[in-house]
Structure formats: C-alpha cells, structure tokens
Specification:
It comes from Nocardioides caricicola. It is an enzyme of class 5 (isomerase). The structure is a single chain. By secondary structure, the chain is an alpha+beta fold. Helix content is 23%, strand content 36%. The protein has helices at 16-27, 57-60, 97-105, 128-133, 172-182, 208-213, 220-227, 235-242; strands at residues 4-10, 32-34, 43-50, 65-73, 75-77, 86-89, 109-113, 122-123, 126-127, 143-156, 159-166, 187-197, 200-201, 218-219, 230-232, 255-258, 264-271, 274-280. Strands 1, 2, 3, 4, 7, 10, 11, 12, 13 and 14 form a ten-stranded mixed beta sheet that branches.
Amino acid sequence: MTDGLVVVDKPGGMTSHDVVSRVRRLAGTRKVGHAGTLDPMATGVLVLGVNRATRLLGHLMLTDKGYDATIKLGVATTTDDAEGEVVATASTEGLDEATIRSAAAEFVGDLMQVPTAVSAIKVDGKRAYQRVRDGEEVELKARPVTVHELTVTDVRGDELDVSVRCTSGTYIRAIARDLGARLGVGGHLTALRRTAVGPYDLSVAHTLEDLSDEFRLLPIADAARAAFPAVDLDDRQAGDVRVGRPLDLELSALTGVFAPDGSFLALYEPKDGRARPVAVFTG
C-alpha cells in the first residue's frame, strides 16, 4: 500500500507540520498532507494523506468534526486560549451551574462566528496570526458555522468541560471566548482534544510511537468508502471515469466511484442531471 490515510492521535506540544514531517519519514515519501490543522496545545485526531490520498484531504476538510474541550471563565486572553497573554479578568462568584449551562446552550445551531485573531485565515494575503505577531490589529469578519451539538459534561466552579460536534471551520476557542462574553466575565480555552474528523475518530487513531513500531496506512479505497457514499461501476462505466467522462447516475451528494475489482477511481457529484467528476484518482 502506497496511497492512503494515516489517522494520528496528535500529542500536545507539536504542530500539525511537525506530525507531517514525522510521517513523511515513516512513510518514506514527501507527499504527505493533513486535513485541517490542530494547534500545538491541542491533541487528538489528525488525518493525514499519503501520496494520491493527499487529494482526498480537501474534501475531508468539509466534513463535521468533534471535540472535547475545557473552558476557563473569568479570564480573557489575546489568543482565546491558555497560550495567550491575559487581557482581562472578572469575578465568577455570581455564576452558578444552571446559568453556565443555559448560556452554553445558546451556542448550538447556525451561528455567525468571528474567528479568533490568531487563526490561519489570510488577510490581504497574510495569515491573521502572523499579523498579530507583528503587532498589527486584526479584525476578522464573522462567518457562518454550525454547531450540531454542544454538551456540557462537567462544571467545576469557573471551569467547564464540553463536547462539541460542529462543521469544519468552527473555532472552539471562539466558543470559549464568546461564552465568557455572554456571561459577562470573559473566558478562554485551556484544553482541546479533537475526537473525530468525519468518520475517522480516536478508535482508529494511532500515536506516533505506535506508527514508529508499525506503520499503519488505511488504503485509499477503504478511506473513500468510509468518508463518502459509494457506487460500484461496471467495466464500461469505469472506462468512462478513467477519461473523466460524466456518468448517467443519480447521485445526491459527493460520491466515491469504484471499479469492479474494488479499486477507488474518483469522486463524482450530481450536476445538471448527471454525475460529473470532481477528482479522478486513476491514470
């Protein structure tokens, strides 16, 4: 197997690029990329593509993600997490658990969220976090995100643990910041663990130490079947796919199409009454 996904349980203290560099050495190829960065302080699921599977990653980044997080109330920071400088503090003595849970429930649904200023979003061609590091004032526009579920699993005074299931592009640090603001005391993120990216969760993730002992690659065909609806083609249809032709298939979403022998051929989408290629992985 030379093409596939590696699901890593990223340790804290490493950047996503650090993990990519390690996996490049383990896989013996430079062609390794990741689907969605994790901050150095964060741990958990980081999906990497190897060789041809790197082309799947952009489509995986559009899928839902899951997180477990800890939020500290009463303290606001420059980065909306524990790595930033404290910019404001407030007493939380007037807050009770019911009030905290009620406020947290307001962050479920379709939201307009202002990303954290130290995000990787580009502003006039330059990453927002780099502008902050250079001492510039950064104001990002609110963007639509969807939080499918936000469950408060524990409240310990001015700290709470939450589990979140949300669309890609949602900033959990921004939820911590905005929840603190809603409660009038400020807040920031103190711990973050990504539990899932699309269908890939911690149950299929491996530590870098495990991968060093035995490198495990999820074959590209298995990865595509797990992430997208699948259609098995006949020989004639497979031949059409190999040259990028549309297919007379009724699709309802982005779909993986497979040759009669089970090999993964392409991603197709419904368009103008036919199935049309989005990305072809053969040839």
